[in-house]
Structure formats: C-alpha cells, structure tokens
Amino acid sequence: MQKLKFPLIIFIFSLAIFWVARSYGADVSIAQLLAMPFLLLAICGANILGLAINRGILILAFLFGLSGVALSYNIEKLSTGGIFVARFDDDPLESESRIFRNHMSEILEPITNVKALRYPFPIASDLSANTILKSEQKDALIWGSSRWLNATIRYKKNLQIKDILTMDQLSNISLPELGNLYLIFSPNTFGLSFGKNAHTDVFLAFVLAAEVSESEPERESLFKLAGLTKSHWTTNAHKAYPLWRLGNLQLLKAIEHGEYEPGELDCALNNYQLAAAFLDNARQNLDLHSAILTNHAVALYIKSKLENKPELEKIYVYEFYKAKHRRKESMSEVGEVSIFDAVKENLLTLYKLGEYESEKLVRRDEKGIISESSKKAKKAEKKEAKQANKKAAKKANKQAKKEKKNNLQK
Predict the structure, then answer these.
(1) Is 83 helix (H, G, I), strand (E, B) or coil?
(2) Which of 1, 47, 119, 398 has the fewest Cβ atoms surrounding its Cβ within 10 A?
(3) Mean pLDDT of the 8-17 span
C-alpha cells in the first residue's frame, strides 16, 4: 500500500497541472505535454501485478508524445497555400472545430484537391487573421465560434484600371480616361451564422474553392453556386461577397480584350445589384459595401460612355460619393491604397473631367488661384516699393550734394 501511495500522489498532481493549464487557456496538446512527465513518473513508480514497467519504454513514449505535439503544430505549416480552420473560441477540446474541418475537406478535396488544415489556436480579430495568412502563406483562414464563423481571404490590392489593362486595350475601346479609375479588390473578410441546420460548410467551400482555383470559368461557376446557396442563416449578408467577386470578373471580361462586350457588363451590373441587396445594412460590412458601390459605379461609367447614356452620369457620381461617405465610418485599410483613398481618387478624376462638382475641390482651386494672384501682387508691390525707395534715396543724395556745394561757395 505504501508503494502505491507516492505514485498516486504524483498521478493526482499531473491531473492538477493539466486542469490548471487548461483554466489559464492553454491548448489541450500543451496541457497534456505539461502533465505527461508527471504521469509517466507515476506509472514508473507503480507496480502493476507485481511487475515494474521498463523506464526505457516510458522515456520512449514521452519522446513520441513530444514529437506528436510538435508535428501537430507544425506539419501543416510546412507547405504554402491551403486553407486554415482555427480552433473555435468556445471549443476548448477542439471537437466541433475538427468535425467542421473534416466536413470542409470532404467538400473541398473533390473540387480543388485542397484540404482544410488545422490551426490550433482561436483567432481574436481580422487583423490577427490577416497577419497569420501573410506569415504562414495560406490562401484563407476560417475562424470564430460554434455560432458565428468568419472567413478571411488573402489580401488583394486596389488597382487602377490602367494597372490591369494595357493602354492599347483602353485605346481600342476608345475610353483612355477609364484607366485612371480605381477598382476595389481589398475587402477580404465576411461572417455568417453557423449551426446544425445551416449549410455553412457548403457555402464556404464554394467560395474558397473559387478563390484558390486557377481556372476563370471554374471560379465564375463556383462564385455563382455560392451566391445561389440557400440555407437557414440568421442573415444573408455573406452572399454579397461571392456575387461582388463574380461581378468583378465579369466587369474585367467586358473590356479586357480591347473590345467592349455589353452582355458581360450587364451581368456584372446585375451581380453588383444583387450583392448590394443582400448587404442591405452597410454596417454589416462597411468595406464590402464601399467596394460594391465603387465597382458598380465604374461599370455604370463604362456603360454611360460606350453606349451613349448620359442619364447614368448622376447615378455613378452619386455612388462614388456615397462610397466615400460610408468609408469614413470604417477602420483604415492596411495596404498600398486604401478604399477611402481609392474612392477619393475616383472623385478627383471625375472632377478633372468636369463631371463632379465638389465645393471642397472648387474652394481648393480658388484658393490656389487667389494665393497665386496675391503672390504676384505682393511681388509687384515689393518691386514698386524698392524702386520708390531707390528714387527717394537718389533724390535725397542729390539734394545733400547740392547743399554741400552751396555751403562751400559761401
């Protein structure tokens, strides 16, 4: 009995270490690793049926356990690309996260040959998600809780159309000024509800498969499937994302070959309008709302110029302005050109073309003209004053010499 007392105390101590580690938020694997040496020590000190367990076997078991934990944290980080599924915030034992990850892999692998990979820690914000994607070189990261999931996709830059198309392509469609307008591509996070009756895994699989696909027709089909997916969600705002991405593909397709394709542009406009209808409350995703308005306005600008429809001018100018106004309520974007700056540049381009009258820009120009005029006036005044001073000094000098001469004669 005395021989079993010490191992029993060590065993209870190992359990205590495990639960303390878990109470402080340590991952299950880390808590097990901390408790394992004491558990092995307890087993080593115990005699089972009068036989002591070989210590070499216990050390080997410990090393295997250590290697297993290390591999579970690093094996899926060795390759670039792929989709991470982070441990859910409210899933400490990682059971629901694992089930969801397996469902995602079952849907993704037949389409793209890409698996959903394990990320062992919960994610606190989209800023953290973007940092992880950049450092781990992955395509997407799914994170959140067992009730609400977020998808963060690798960041894309906002670009001027002249950075996407060549000047020859812009000249062929007789719209070179189009090159100065920005298209918004940077919104990369959206959220949706998650539950037993919601096909969240199917929707996310379609969207992420489209993001990693290298075939444009396949990407269009998958974004369309995601937009058509119906289920019991608390809101359908997330469906705006794939429809916006689909609209972007169709917009570029309408002009990229140097020939205007009005059918493709009409499809893009239709999908932007559907996306805006799903995202009926801008505050659900301010960045995406601004992107939908901006890109829809660019599409209207093209339609107005190439189909001679001047009545569309007021609409696209208003949408550019509304996108800028909404953007002020959102966080600043990390990237070369933020959404807010891109929309401001678009408005400045319209102002230079004489299609947008901004009181602020007019005041700035007037101020520039006034300040330039005042500079010239001040310069002229200074010159005149200098000349007057010279004349006065010359006259005074002449008068002094004359007086001096008169005094000498006397």
Answers:
(1) strand
(2) 1
(3) 70
Q: Which among 117, 130, 120 has a CA at the least distance from the CA of 87?
A: 120
How far is 266 from 300, CA to CA, in rounded Å? 9
DSSP per-residue codes, 304-329? HHHTT-GGGHHHHHHHHHHHHHHHTT
> Contact at 8 Å (CB) between 33 and 72?
no
Half-sphere exposure of 398 (CA within 13 A, CB side): 6
Q: Position of tokens 């000190």?
A: 45
Q: Which residue has the tokens 């820690």?
A: 121
Residue ranges of E strands in 93-215:
116-119, 140-144, 148-153, 159-160, 182-183, 189-193
Provide the percentage of residues in the chain whose pLDDT is more than 90.
49
Report whether 297 contacts 319 (CB < 8 A). yes
Sign of CA dihedral 226, 229, 235, 236: positive
Alpha-carbon gap, residue 240 to 1, rounded angstroms: 69
Query: Which two tokens mark 404?
Result: 């001096």
Question: Do 222 and 210 meet the contact criterion of CB atoms below 8 Å apart?
Answer: yes
Residue 121's closest CA among 136, 105, 103?
A: 136
For residue range 232-265, list pLDDT tens digits in order.
999 999 999 999 999 999 999 999 887 899 999 9
Give the side-chain half-sphere CA count within 13 A for 340: 11
Are the beta carbons of 108 and 205 closer than 8 angstroms? yes
Using alpha carbons only, give the angle 394, 396, 400 rounded to the nearest 5 degrees. Answer: 115
CA dist 83 and 270 (Å) reads: 30
What's the pTM value of the predicted model, to 2 decimals? Answer: 0.73
